[in-house]
Amino acid sequence: MNISEHSRVWIYQANRALNPGEVEQIQQKLNSFTSEWLAHGNELLAHSEIRYNQFIILSVDEQQAGATGCSIDKSVKFMLELEKEFNINLFDRFQLAYRNGDKIETINRENFQILIDTAKIDAETIVFNNLVSTRKSLETNWEIPIKDSWHASVFTLSNGIVNSL
């Protein structure tokens, strides 16, 4: 689908990697949801995808019709249904995701801090900035080194190593 780089995005990070069967089932449900997603009766030009078997991304091209509170509520309700059906958590904002080589790791803030303290994570470790709000920023500012992310405001950088505030 051709969707504008200015489209609004929402990223839902699962607390675990989805298996291939789950990815296929969830993508089918996402396709059905986005094809019927409306805002005050107006069809939304929406796109959905799953990246790295762990991140569900919804996009809406608001140049055609903007997402409204009601339409956003519908998407949240849909995500809550996915959580129940697939026994996943998509709303735990205290889980941080980062790259460990080719693998995506998901860890709570406390354990993330331990990895920082033991220098297993440093300023160059790639983290996922799930706060991006447009397709363009998804492509340019989603997977970035800690030193360039919001994480740097929570964990201070010193000598190339991230340290807790």
Question: What distinguishing features does this structure have?
Answer:
165 residues, three-stranded antiparallel sheet, two-stranded antiparallel ribbon, 33% helix, globular
Briefly say what this structure is:
The chain has helices at residues 20-36, 69-86, 109-117, 135-141, 151-154, and strands spanning 8-13, 38-39, 42-43, 45-51, 55-61, 95-100, 103-108, 126-128, 143-145, 155-158, 161-164. With 165 residues, it is an alpha+beta fold. The longest helix has 18 residues, at 69-86.
Describe the structure.
This protein is an alpha+beta fold. 33% of the residues lie in helices and 30% in strands. The protein has helices at 20-36, 69-86, 109-117, 135-141, 151-154, and strands at residues 8-13, 38-39, 42-43, 45-51, 55-61, 95-100, 103-108, 126-128, 143-145, 155-158, 161-164. It has a three-stranded antiparallel β-sheet with strand order 1-5-4, with helices on one face. A two-stranded antiparallel ribbon has the order 2-3. The chain has a two-stranded antiparallel ribbon with strand order 6-7. A hairpin with a 2-residue loop joins strand 10 (155-158) and strand 11. It is globular, with a radius of gyration of 17 Å. The termini are far apart. The relative contact order is 0.16.
Radius of gyration equals: 17 Å
User: Can you count the beta strands?
Assistant: 11
Summing up helix and strand content along with how strands pair, one would put the structural category as: alpha+beta
> What characteristic shape results from the CA principal axes?
globular
Query: Per DSSP, what share of the residues sits in E-state strands of 2 or more residues?
Result: 25-35%
Query: What would the average pLDDT be, to the nearest integer?
Result: 87
Unreliable stretches covering 5 or more consecutive residues:
none
Largest sheet: 3 strands, antiparallel
Strand order of the largest sheet: 1-5-4
Q: What is the number of helices?
A: 5
CA-CA gap between termini: 43 Å
- Helix content range: 25-40%
Secondary-structure element order, as H and E?
A: EHEEEEHEEHEHEHEE
